[in-house]
Every structure is written in C-alpha cells, then in structure tokens.
Amino acid sequence: MRTISCFLLVPLMPTAGFIVITLARDRVNVWEILPAFLMICYPWCWSVGGMAYVGLRHFRRDGFVACGFAGAFIAVLYFLIPFALGPDRFELSRSLLQFPLLLAATGVFSGVFFRSLRGPFARSEKTPSQK
C-alpha cells in the first residue's frame, strides 16, 4: 500500500516544479496547464520510475543516495530522449543548459521523497534456515 501511495504522490513534485517554472516565465492560468503537466508526469514517473523501483529493489539499493541518483537520472532522461531524437530543433542557450539541471534537482528531491514515504524496500535475502 505504501508503494502505491508513493507512486500517486511523487509525480506531484515534478508537476509542481514545472508549474513554478512556467509561472515564473509567463503569466498563465495554472488550471489550464495543470492537466497537461499531470498527463506528462504521471505516465513518465509510473513507467520509468516503476522500472527504476524494480531495479533498485532487485539489486538491494534502497538508500537515499541511490534513490536520489535514480530520480536525477529519470528526470534528465526526460530531457535527453527528445534532444537525441532531434537536436536540430533545440537552440543552444543558457536556458537549454539550465533545464536539465533543474530537472535533475527535481528528480533528486522526487527520489528522496519516494524513499522517505516508502521506507526501505530492498529485497531481503533468505538465509538457508528460512527456505
């Protein structure tokens, strides 16, 4: 149950980050852009974050540092995939270089938030007496 609640709450963190960045750049109505951000963050966090959760659990890495790095990787991957598919569409600028850093910071906080809510989740090894 804790895992499900984490996967419901953690995507709200990058959504809040995107909304703050958008509001800082333009004056827009939050209620108009909120559904779009939720439709991006939830599937991304559930699919890629779910794979990261399974991988971290399998390799018994459930510390705050491992979850923070996984969150940063997932967030930067969100930037790198479209960039790799069409780098000619992006104009090199200071904001282009700041965006992955902001994503990574949001990812670190999301990973640590997930670990804080979820608690330890690494698979425990069964000893011969438990088999």
Give structural attributes:
131 residues, mainly alpha, 5 helices
Describe the structure.
The chain is mainly alpha-helical and 131 residues long. It contains five helices and no strands. The radius of gyration is 17 Å and the shape is globular. The model has no long low-confidence stretch (mean pLDDT 84).
Please give the number of β-strands.
0
Task: State the shape.
Answer: globular
Largest sheet: none
Strand content: under 5%
Unreliable residue stretches: none
* Class from helix and strand fractions: mainly alpha
Q: End-to-end distance, in Å? A: 26 Å
Q: Which oligomeric form is depicted?
A: single chain
| Percent helix range | over 70%
SSE order, one letter for each helix or strand: HHHHH
- Quick check: average pLDDT? 84
* Total of helices: 5
Summarize the structure.
The protein has helices at residues 2-9, 12-25, 30-58, 64-85, 94-118. The protein is mostly helical and 131 residues long. The protein is globular.
List the helices and strands and how they pair.
Layout: H1 2-9, H2 12-25, H3 30-58, H4 64-85, H5 94-118
